[in-house]
């Protein structure tokens, strides 16, 4: 009788212990959602130069921080450490956009990189249009928002997000789409829906995920617009001989030109859509952080204005050359990126098979690995007074926003670096120059301008930027649309 009682107790104990451990892990994963950045930074500072793991919803995340870890990730073959599996885990494309990426996706990635690099080479021709978009959106905000003692009360995140989505749309999809209010309205709603779905799917039990997937009118409108543009470009290249073909005027046109002829329309739509989402979900956050820093550290405004006074936005000469000659602004943007560090981790990977770092740390197959740049940028051994905002730490040090490598890991690892980093850098500097030349601004309440979610620092939708037109607007170009 006693033996059977013990046996029964053991039978009950194992499932109870399993449920207890599962519950603890679930709580730990949820804790990461709200305090992931802080938890990882504290762990990195408590145990410097050591890899560690944290529970995240649905997986285990291995966090690494040393130069050796960084170089190991750079050297790891795609057959061992996959960025596409990490992106699939992050974006949940099966539910957000109705496709399930296979792995590897090197061929799609190659076409994406080629089309992006082509458009980077076209930046000097596009920058005047970017300036017009920025002026148009910011002028509209100043003119239409409620005023308090002559200052328009502009919601910073809402305005910057729409501005940068228009800029991104112009580069990726073309001028017509960037100036189409109907398209932009659907695109903004589609982006918001996608962000909500990709987070929700990762939090609910897997059997509930299929009922969450997005299939609304905004997504359909956006996909149909992409499909029409792709078909138009294909028809044009088919009917026009190579010597007479116009250079692609958007990433979409370049993608169609570089893609193999046997790729289906849906495959092109899916690839361009993912390219669009990756940029529009990240770039407005970095831009919002930059504006926050410009007006929460007003002691640097005089130096910024002195320098930007030499930039002529209406000049027919290349703006790129002028933007390259703004060392203080370059340093200021870098310091904003360092201190805000919108994603605590970079170089997102999932182990295809078991992977062992050079220090012996092992990552089982299926688990995630990321490099914690937030800890690196806050290391007092590397950055004196690392919590202080000081753009002079980068000034005249031969540093650039688009640098790559362990010292500036913002763009990932060199073998798989972000191909659009020059576009991001130029548009950030363009935004700063446009605002400094055209408007007076201030942020009266700098409290709670951001909140943490997972490893990201997300701008609050409630932060107000007080704006008015400068008494003397310098070097303006025609706004229009």
From TrEMBL:
GO cellular component terms, A-Z: membrane
Cofactor: heme
Record keywords: Heme, Iron, Membrane, Metal-binding, Monooxygenase, Oxidoreductase, Transmembrane, Transmembrane helix
Record's subcellular location: Membrane
Binding positions for heme per the UniProt entry: 418
Primary residence: membrane
Membrane listed as a keyword: yes
Similarity comment: family membership: Belongs to the cytochrome P450 family.
Protein name per Swiss-Prot or TrEMBL: Cytochrome P450
Classification lineage: Eukaryota, Fungi, Dikarya, Ascomycota, Pezizomycotina
